[in-house]
Sequence to fold (637 residues):
Amino acid sequence: MTDQTGLSGLVDRAALVTPPVVARRMRGLSERAIAWLFITPTMLLLLAINIFPLIWTIRLSFTNYRANRPNATMLDVGLANYQSILTDPDVWAAMTVTARFVFWSILIQTVLGFTLAWLIDKKFRSHGLWTTLILLPMMLSPAVVGNFWTFLYQPQIGLFNYVIAAVTGAPASSFQMLAQVQLAPWAIVIVDTWMWTPYVMLICLAGLRSIPDYIYEAAEVDRASPWRQFWSITLPMALPFIMLAVLFRGIENFKMFDMVNLLTGGGPGSTTEVASITLKREAFEKWRTGYSSAFAIILFVTVFGLANIYVKALNRVKSR
Amino acid sequence: MTGLATAHSVVDPSPLTKRIAATVVIGYALITLVPLLWIFMTGFKSPSDAIAYPPKLVAEPTPEGYCNLFTTRTRQTPEYMAKLPPAASLCDRVSRGRNMVVAGPSNYIPRYINSLVIAFGSTALSVVLGTLAAYAFSRFKVPLKDDLMFFILSTRMMPPIAVAIPIYLMYRELGLSDTRLGMILLYTSVNISLAVWLLKGFMDEIPREYEDAAMVDGYTRLQAFFKVVLPQATTGIVATAIFCLIFAWNEYAFAVLLTSGTAQTAPPFIPIIIGEGGQDWPAVAAGTTLFLIPIVVFTVLLRKHLLRGITFGAVRK
Fold:
């Protein structure tokens, strides 16, 4: 996202307004000196740990380098890595798995999160307490939680299967959540939903709270039905917030690694092999560093491109 | 809008609507809490109770899970066991019931300490650097300010695994692999975008007149920053610190790829606690519980700042 009116404009319009420089007698350090003194450490750290490695990744992506053989000769292979990634059916399979995972998790979390926010906004007694309790899962470590869910999902002894069996009447062992090809992707969607619905809920709640009361009062005066009020006021005015939640969740879900690695490790077969898992396998198990660097760059460009297009759409909705 | 509970007004839902809303929300909250409660309860079960079918809601509580988490044990012959002096500790007594003796401490505490050192170290560094940069961005004319701010934000978009490849190579050259310092620097670089953006939002809300007044009184710019602006920004700094802390505390991908022993944190360690014949679930549950407790406490303490933090301050009135 290079578009300056994009996310940064959306996130903080105040940042764009620079104060007039007031001529003032300087004492101590000049303002310019302080500004540089304050910003430089952050920039140096980011250059060292983000930009330099990024440039290094780009460089490696054109080579056949292998990190487990640092002394082997490094050959320039031109665009061969990119070419083989874009024609590799496994890569496309991983991208499809990722896309489906992102789609279903976000769809379910958005509907659920918005509904919860809308109900919480009714301000029943003790809603603050229950809101805080709902927020707990998203504050926890995805890895530690993912690991524990493998216990809950155990076909014979797990709590999840016990409850499902009690509800459906089928034997508990017939649901191999993490081992059955049809169920494993849903097992991950369920944990992701459990963990991140509160996040969507919180942003939606902010959206609902930002709607001024006078609009509803005017609607009451016009005798608009509650149904009509929901579709004409609540939903459209909360839409930019819902879209913001989708953006943040989308970026995170696209990068998702921890939970999948611990729940299924990509299996069974490659049914839950999301892009990050493929990337980890190529980079840290097969040690194809050059190839995986190219893959990393492709993923990065994909996230940037999609996020940029999305932010443009979001800004259009906002300015409506 | 910084709090979750803001005063609403005239358009108040009917009591029936409120009751329905309360039922659904409380129902969802209770379902959400079941896995957490189950983790907590499993920590106090015996290994056989933990894997009983049907799952045991009520079980005799035992410290075994915690003992297995904190110690390593060796199996001994009955003859050896018979000659032992009386058990010195609770865990020793529990282990002897299973024909084992405590051999020494486990790696959990060192891993937990690594988590603490790395999380607090990177938080302190992120907050200090972030506060300085945020102040400069908030108050001064910085060339290419918007580009720099956007660049800082964009560093969060790379998947951790993708960043891990070059970091791995670089750290290997610099001798930073598997060191606490390496992890502190890495987590700081990830957290700093959040810190700068959040803190800039807070700083923007502190009126400039405060500093102007201080400077009229004879303070220099730097003195005004330290004596006037910083105290005003305390809430924001605390909220930012808690978010950085939660991220660094929970991080797994970098930890599992870049640390193997001395600097390993708890998240990669907990899943590999193995007992006799597979994962020792009560010990895993105990380790998980102890690991989650600080975060649960923080969540309750910081609930009023949550919104601001998770949205980069994008959502506010």
